[in-house]
């Protein structure tokens, strides 16, 4: 909180904390909070965004969200442990996150997810049994002009074809 003097008193301005790292997925998380004006009611939606972007929530991410939305840490942990959707366990060694936002959907992201599910033998939100690959989906990751978009361990891959995606999964699978 920063105090800014102005006529008739002092205005308190909330400055959100810096992003935990330059991993592009934090920008997605921040986007969710910004869209909601960093209001406390955005807690579940924001935790949901962290879960879909990273595949799980660790202590650092829960603290970051709690600080950014100014909710008690205990409340954030309460939400994470109450809903089965949230996972505190890390995902696979690699994470393929297919963007399921409108622009990407129009360009066939649902077919990418379907093909990836078939190749990996898992559903979105799950990790292969060998712990090698997690398949996730996210809402718009902010690169609509390059739709359909997939994040490979957080790196943006634009205009991705089914073949390119399957090749990437193949590379990870045999590592
Ligand atoms: S909808 Fe996929 S990047 Fe915007």
How would you summarize this macromolecular structure in one to three sentences?
The chain is α+β, with helices and mostly antiparallel strands. The chain is built from 7 helices and 6 strands.
What does it look like?
This protein is of the alpha+beta class and 175 residues long. It has two domains: 81 residues, no CATH class; 80 residues, Glutaredoxin, CATH 3.40.30.10. The protein contains seven helices and six strands, in the order E-E-H-H-H-H-E-H-H-E-E-E-H. It has a four-stranded mixed β-sheet, with helices on both faces. Helix 2 packs antiparallel against helix 3 and helix 6 runs parallel beside helix 7. The termini are far apart. The site of FE2/S2 (inorganic) cluster has 12 residues, from helix 5.
């Amino acid at each position: 909180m920063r105090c800014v003097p102005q006529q008739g008193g002092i205005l308190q301005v909330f400055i959100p904390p810096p992003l935990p790292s330059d991993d592009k997925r934090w920008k997605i998380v921040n986007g969710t909070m910004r869209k909601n004006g960093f209001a406390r009611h955005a807690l579940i939606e924001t935790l949901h965004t962290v879960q879909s972007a990273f595949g799980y929530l660790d202590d650092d991410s829960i603290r970051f969200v709690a600080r950014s939305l100014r909710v008690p840490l205990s409340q954030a942990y309460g939400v994470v442990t109450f809903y089965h959707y949230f996972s505190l366990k890390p995902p696979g060694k690699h994470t393929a996150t297919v963007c399921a936002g409108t622009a990407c959907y129009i360009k066939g992201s649902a077919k990418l997810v379907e093909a990836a599910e078939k190749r990996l033998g898992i559903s979105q939100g799950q990790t292969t049994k060998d712990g090698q690959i997690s398949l996730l989906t996210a809402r718009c990751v902010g690169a609509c002009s390059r739709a359909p978009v997939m994040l490979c361990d957080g790196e943006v891959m634009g205009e991705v074809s089914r073949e390119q995606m399957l090749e990437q999964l193949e590379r990870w699978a045999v590592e």
